[in-house]
Amino acid sequence: MKPSALLTLLLAGSALAAAPEAHTGPPAFLVQLTLLLGVSALAAYLSFRLRLIPIIGFLVAGVVAGPGALGLIRDQELISAASEVGVMLLLFTIGIEFSLERLSRIARQIFVGGGLQVGLTVLVAAGALLLTGVAAPDAVFTGCLIALSSTAIVMRLLGERGDTNGPAGQVSLGILIFQDLAVVLMVLLIPMLAGQGGGVAGVLVALAKAGGIIAFVLIAARRIVPPIMEVVARTCSSEIFLLTVVALCFGTASLTAVAGVSLALGAFLAGLLVSESRYGAQAMGEILPLQILFSAAFFLSVGLQLDLGFLAGNLGVVLGAAALIAALKVGVTFLSVRLLGESTRTALPVAFLTAQVGEFSFVLAATGTALGLSFAGMGAQGGGVFIAATVLLMAFTPALNALADVLGRRLPPASPAGVASGTAAGPDEHDAHGLPVEDRVVFAGYGAHARLAARALSRAGVPYSVITRNPDGASELEGRGAPVLIADYMRAGLLRDLNVASARALVIVDDDTEMTERTVSVVRSVAPELRLITRATSPEGFQGLQSLGAQHILTAPREVAAGILDLLTPPEVTRADITRHLAEHPPVTLNATQRAQCEHAAHNAGPVTPEADVCLECVAQGDTWVHLRVCMTCGHVGCCDSSKNKHATAHARRQGHLVIRSAEPGETWAYCYEHQWTK
Questions:
Q1: Are residues 388 and 308 in contact, defined by beta-carbon separation less than 8 angstroms?
Q2: Nearest Cα to 35, choosing from 297, 391, 305?
């Protein structure tokens, strides 16, 4: 399903159902939707030409197109719905990039760093207002409003800079997650400040309900969602996969909203659900176009909030309020991050990044105003001042971020000992999506030709990685310990994340002509110089691939794998060597005596085909080996325990494949690691 089709279903379904049978001209919702998309596209283009980040363009476009200026976009409900979806999808994609294990690593940033930031901001803001004579309810209400930051803006800026996984990105995310949790308490606190609400007991019940739903979501991440994703992925249908992923995002967000938790946090948890399956990268590729589309609506909606007439009439007050809020938040957040134990080099960008006020504060402000509370005790004027100051702070966040960079460059260089911190990336995060690409042959798809060529490359000692949408093929590769990613390799964003331009070559030989041409076109837009090896089944297909920039186009069906090896192996590898690598090795089995030794031998008796004549890991490291062993579960070939690297044992322990057999000529003995028998 195309993103535009889903957009129409989400936002226009009810309008279509309610439309009169006969009408003249386009329906009102379509005019507003067209204006929304047109203004967004124009803002993005002008931002590109002026070398500004798109966020600024969207905010300014919202101000200009809003009711306070040209009045082009008037349907606030449509824009509000689109912006809500935009925030949800943004947080959903961030959740996909995480995992429960990575989230547990920043627990301290969430509860200590976030707790300090929110608590101190409310305390300092309320205390300062109390000293100026503002009533206590209004003072605390104001502190709650300015304690929140914009998750959408902060994470978008971090993503554009590639800093999401850096120390500043991890601390910022921790603080933002705590702010979303604090919203639950603030929603309950504001009626109590106005003399209404259910008291302490009601607060405790609501918090318990929210905690229970979040706990259920986290349990579902491990027990329920992965099997569902597995079933859906095996259909190999992009439409079913996309609909399932979007339903999971919206459903989880709706479930958490029932407990009073923000939709944004619910969507983030939904992303975590998907991240615990094998299909996170594929989900990211499917959802990203929608996320970009709806995120533009969110930033436009912020600009629509600004009344230029009110701003002109109260410019001094608005600028003063914005400056005070920014100064207070920068100071308090900097102190909070330093108390967390982070360096000044980390605290500075976090403080300036989170200096704006969050989107959910608009909701809190409307709730409080309806109950008689006011921003800074300013009465009727307070609401307008707060909205104007908030929009200005959001618009100037990129400038504040740039200021933090300038100040950061003036700091003394970090010492090597101070570079490491609890927010450093784990060992599995050095390669995008955990897939090594640099200087490797990358297979896009894993059909018959790729399978044969990959095994032959293994035997020739050439490292490779695979991107495929086939769960069975991925399971086969994972069982052998080969690097594999389940994703759609026709997504330009995925190829950029993987830095596919650094690969030795990209091989696309199992798709039909149309899909191959689409893939080549996308690859060429991302990596114009990358070596491409493809397959054509007709003269027309050959010409089409050639015009798109594929350098090596193989045609003879029986020579595809041989052609791949001929192109990718060193010159000293002869045609006879290639033929030997392509030849199927005779499968090996356990004899009756060996099978009778234990249940592991009985269940893994073969036949299995050894994947190579060498220890591939030793070849990659430039090392040698003494003897070779073959795994009776998957055919992996590794060096023995008398060798330096002991790769056969390492593979057995890593994969849980406990029975091996000698791969040396003339030897047939086998061994079980658990029961330690040799026969």
A1: no
A2: 297
Query: H/E/C letters for each residue in 8-58?
Result: HHHHHHHHHHHCCCCCCCCCHHHHHHHHHHHHHHHHHHHHHHCCCCHHHHH
Residues 6+ apart with CB under 8 A from 397: 55, 150, 153, 154, 157, 353, 355, 356
CA separation for the pair 6, 39 (Å, rounded): 20
Residue 451 CB contacts under 8 Å (≥ 6 apart), including other chains: 473
CB 561 within 8 A of CB 453: yes
CB neighbours of residue 418 within 10 Å: 11
pLDDT, position 175: 93
Give the C-alpha separation, 612 to 590, whole Å: 19
Q: Contact, 670 vs 661, CB < 8 A?
A: yes
Sheet of 441-444: strand order equals: 484-486, 464-468, 441-444, 505-508, 532-535, 552-554
pLDDT of 380 reads 84
C-alpha–C-alpha distance, residues 52 and 201, integer Å: 49
> Exposure of 347 by Cβ count < 10 A (0-12 exposed, 13-18 middle, 19+ buried)?
buried
> What is the distance between the alpha carbons of residues 254 and 273, in angstroms, rounded to a whole number?
15
What six digits make up the tokens of 507?
């091989």
E-only strand ranges, 377-470: 441-444, 464-468
Reading the block at residue 376, the tokens are 């800074």
Instruction: Determine which helix (DSSP H) or strand (DSSP E) holds 639, and give its type and residue range.
Output: strand 637-639
Residues counted in the chain: 679
**Which element (helix H / strand E) includes 534?**
strand 532-535
Q: For residues 35 and 72, is the Cβ–Cβ distance under 8 A?
A: yes
Q: Among 405, 387, 479, 485, which Cα is nearest to 443's?
A: 485
Task: Tell me which amino acid residue 457 is.
Answer: L
pLDDT at position 115: 93
Give the whole-angstrom CA distance, residue 107 versus residue 520.
43
Pairing of strands 552-554, 532-535: parallel
Q: How far is CA 81 from CA 256, 297, 363, 638, 656, in A?
A: 18, 9, 14, 56, 49
pTM: 0.62
pLDDT value, residue 422:
45
Task: Name 587's Cβ contacts closer than 8 Å, sequence gap at least 6.
Answer: 606, 607, 608, 609
C-alpha to C-alpha distance for 14 and 9, rounded to whole angstroms: 9
71: left (phi over 0), alpha (psi -120 to 50) or beta: left
What whole-number distance in Å separates Cα of residue 150 and Cα of residue 295? 13
DSSP-derived secondary structure for 244-276: HHHHHHHHHHHHHHHTT--HHHHHHHHHHHHHT
Pair of tokens at residue 121: 């901001």
Q: How many CB atoms lie within 10 A of CB 246?
A: 23
Closest CA to 286 of 19, 78, 3, 531: 3
What's the pLDDT at 300?
A: 80
Question: Which mean pLDDT values do the consecutive 10-residue runs of the chain (679 residues) have?
Answer: 47 47 66 81 83 78 79 76 79 76 83 94 95 93 94 82 82 89 80 74 72 76 79 81 87 80 78 80 79 77 81 92 95 95 92 90 84 90 90 89 89 55 44 79 85 77 86 78 85 83 87 81 87 84 84 68 66 62 72 90 85 71 81 86 89 89 86 90
Rounded to whole angstroms, the Cα distance separating 373 from 382 reads: 10
Return the pLDDT at 23: 53
